[in-house]
Design a protein that fits this description.
Elements: E1 3-6, H1 12-15, H2 23-27, H3 30-45, H4 58-74, E2 77-81, H5 88-97, H6 102-105, E3 109-111, H7 118-125, E4 133-139, H8 145-162, E5 170-174, H9 180-187, E6 191-194, H10 208-216, H11 221-234, H12 244-257, E7 262-267, H13 273-287, E8 289-291, E9 297-300, E10 303-308, H14 317-322, E11 327-334, H15 361-378, E12 383-388, H16 393-414, H17 422-435, H18 441-453
Parallel strand pairs: 2-3, 2-4, 4-5, 5-6, 7-10, 7-11, 11-12
Antiparallel strand pairs: 1-12, 8-9
Bound molecules: 5-phosphoarabinonic acid (PA5).
Length: about 450
């Protein structure tokens, strides 16, 4: 495993004093950082924060592999029903570690419909044979409206195809005890996998949530968790200046204090682009908070934005280089691409193409990244790079853990609770009320009155 955080381009010596951070500023956080480190360790030891222990659940990994080996023989299709933390990790693992056109040649074909757009879901039905499809329903709470609705939607087709045996094509991943999925699983012999109660949805990529689809698609899940396990040691380093989780958190914390409230993650690799999508949820839901732990209104957080290089050099980079200096940009860079053939100038009459001779697409992509980095740095725009030696399961696992640990660190520095999501819950409750769910009648009345009283400005 080799994953490195290069933060040279946030330091004042490279970025200039106005927007750069001094060594002294980072060092001023060391005392607090040490306390945070100890608090996080205590919370991990006391099993309050479960994600620290996820890379070491050997029994769970073996159970998943046994299940996946048997399921691969039975199913030609896999449909993952979950949303938010129950979908983004699995998607990122799949797209980073499996063939970019996987479904065109591999089996089981994998689908991750993480939305309830009826047309989108309907289109999926045209491409699967329900009788040969494993539906993996993932919901920590077991109550999320989108996931429940998707299950009900497909149930019609499962029953039509399999009758009373519909449950044979279903598995659930949910809380060990709580939630509606467990009530269903008590009635039908549906295989259940568990999300530990002390692991929040957005920290659950390395639980059965992400590992089941990974194992089914042929990802080496032991290598994935091994990379994460190695990163746990690196992020436990007491020398915080050598600890990438602390550095990532400290840099972003200091910039938040300076009003840079946008965190761009720009991947110079299509394979890694969905990691940025996963990070978007992790950083937004964990750190975007109104109250601090003492109940003071703080309204903190950074808006995460995902971008893709080189594609977005022709879309976003103008803004990043010359627009408001309110962003911290994290590049994802791959040092060694798996396939990287040299180019040849097939049109020798075009001398302007000669500079491509012998160069590879990977070289072009990485030079483009370097060029963007230079342009940003020369315009005093803070930027960091997470360097992947290669796109491997070990490095992807390490990336998940690094960013999770950095998020936990940043939450403690900001003195907010990084592990709840009251804003998301507000939306969930309003949805239940609007959909007429039992128990939400009062809320429904309130909302309808509010909508009735609203003054409309529509053109
Ligand atoms: O991180 C979180 O907790 C959320 O994004 C959840 O993952 C998301 O709301 C889905 O919740 P659940 O897994 O309970 O269906």
């Amino acid at each position: 495993m080799s994953l490195k955080l290069d933060y040279s381009n946030v330091m004042d010596v490279n970025l200039g004093t106005e927007h750069g951070l001094s060594k002294a500023e980072i060092e001023s956080l060391l005392d607090k950082g040490k306390q945070v480190q100890q608090e996080l360790r205590n919370k991990a030891e006391q099993e309050i924060l479960g994600f620290y222990k996820l890379p070491f659940q050997e029994k769970v990994f073996d159970e998943i592999l046994t299940f996946a080996n048997a399921a691969k023989k039975r199913f030609d299709y896999y449909v993952h029903l979950g949303i938010g933390g129950s979908a983004l990790g699995p998607i990122a693992i799949h797209t980073s570690l499996r063939d970019s056109y996987y479904n065109m040649s591999e089996s089981p074909k994998m689908f991750f419909p993480d939305n309830v757009d009826p047309d989108w879901i309907h289109d999926l039905l045209k491409h699967i044979d329900v009788s040969k499809t494993l539906f993996h329903v993932v919901s920590k709470s077991g109550a999320t409206a989108e996931t429940a609705a998707s299950l009900l939607y497909f149930m019609k087709y499962l029953k039509a195809s399999l009758g009373d045996n519909f449950y044979k094509n279903l598995i659930f991943t949910t809380d060990p005890v709580e939630g509606l999925l467990n009530i269903i699983a008590r009635e039908y012999p549906i295989k259940c996998f568990r999300i530990p109660p002390n692991v929040g949805g957005r920290f659950s990529a390395l639980t059965p949530v992400g590992l089941i689809p990974a194992a089914l698609a042929g990802v080496d899940i032991k290598a994935l968790v091994h990379g994460a396990a190695e990163m746990t040691k690196i992020c436990d380093n007491d020398n915080l200046l050598q600890n990438p989780a602390f550095i990532f958190a400290a840099v972003h914390y200091l910039y938040m204090k300076r009003g840079k409230n946008i965190s761009v993650m720009m991947s110079y690799s299509n394979k890694l682009r969905d990691l940025a999508d996963w990070y978007r949820q992790l950083w937004a839901e964990s750190l975007g908070k109104r109250f601090d732990v003492n109940g003071n209104v703080v309204e903190v957080g950074q808006t995460p934005v995902k971008a893709l290089g080189a594609t977005d050099q022709h879309s976003q980079v103008q803004l990043y280089v010359e627009g408001p200096n309110d962003k911290v940009i994290t590049f994802l860079e791959v040092e060694k691409f798996e396939h990287n053939e040299p180019l040849h100038n097939h049109f020798p009459q075009i001398k302007e193409f000669d500079y491509f001779e012998g160069k590879t697409l990977g070289q072009l992509l990485n030079y483009e990244k370097q060029a963007t980095e230079l342009a940003l740095t020369n315009n005093q725009r803070p930027n960091l790079t997470i360097k992947f030696s290669e796109v491997s399961p070990e490095n992807i696992g390490a990336f998940f853990f690094l960013l999770e640990a950095a998020t936990a660190f940043a939450g403690e520095l900001l003195e907010i609770n990084a592990f709840d999501q009251p804003g998301v819950e507000q939306g969930k409750i309003a949805t239940y009320a609007l959909m007429g769910r039992k128990g939400y009648e009062k809320k429904r009345k309130e909302i309808l009155e509010q909508l009735e009283a609203k003054q409309k400005f529509i053109v």
